[in-house]
Amino acid sequence: MIEDKYRWNERYKTLPPPQNPSDLLLRYIDRIKGKDVLDIAAGLGRHSRILAENGCKVDAIEYSDVAIESLRKIIGVNAIEMDLENGCSLEKSYDAILCFNYLNRNLYDFMINHIKDNGIILFETFVFDEENECAPKNPDFLLRKNELLKVFGSLHIIEYKESNVIKQNGQKALMASMAAIKK
């Protein structure tokens, strides 16, 4: 939706985005070195950048014009402008698929069907919790407890946790982190 594009453009222009890559990515980056990677809702490229610097060929999907402009400046990153609300239309399969701080349940099947054998999915986003201070307000954008375990249960889940974290803005949120391999 075009309203989402405007909202994200403003957010990327005015709010400082997270600078450091997720600890989840850092724990598994050696496993995906030199591979084809899909970064879903890549934002300004904090994960795409580190992957490209480590020899990966990264397809980074974003809807925001501001984010696309930032992604296009990163050597080794193919910035793809796409509204993911209706799913993903890419046909390629990947050695790794990343999804951080974004939830679109329409993409679950796409992720499972487009990860190569022995490929890894890294997924980290907000979980519904009454005590969240900085998570999205819309429940459609919040995981239910253990949702990723159920959805990706056909894969070999090598790490899963739900824990309260303090975000860059100093507020807490319940986050789910998952690393899963397709066997």
From TrEMBL:
InterPro entries to which the protein is assigned, alphabetical: SAM-dependent_MTases_sf (IPR029063)
Keyword presence, Transferase: yes
Keywords: Methyltransferase, Transferase
A Pfam family assignment: Methyltransf_23
GO molecular function: methyltransferase activity
Transmembrane residue ranges: none
GO biological process: methylation
Identification of the protein by name: Methyltransferase domain-containing protein
Source organism: Hydrogenimonas thermophila
